[in-house]
Write a structure and sequence with these properties.
Number of strands: 0
Largest sheet: none
Distance between the termini: 14 Å
Radius of gyration: 16 Å
Number of helices: 3
Helix content: over 70%
Strand content: under 5%
Length: 69
């Protein structure tokens, strides 16, 4: 289930970046476009935190899945 949530988060971040580009090009509203880019960055960093392994070679997502078994 968490894999689906992370996948949807990445898709939402991609759509936010695309939407920010179109908002910037059509309305020249830089402030809102930059906020959308910032939100996409935060979402991608959250995915990276959950999926990238630590110094021990295990990702937090793997630890969570092992604890559920």
């Amino acid at each position: 289930m968490l894999d689906a949530v992370l996948s949807l988060t990445v898709l939402a971040a991609i759509l936010l970046l695309i939407g920010a580009f179109f908002l910037w090009r059509r309305t020249a509203n830089v402030k809102n476009a930059l906020l959308m880019v910032l939100l996409a960055f935060v979402a991608l960093m959250n995915v990276a935190i959950w999926t990238l392994p630590d110094a021990g070679g295990e990702a937090p997502l793997e630890k969570l899945e092992q604890g559920a078994r």
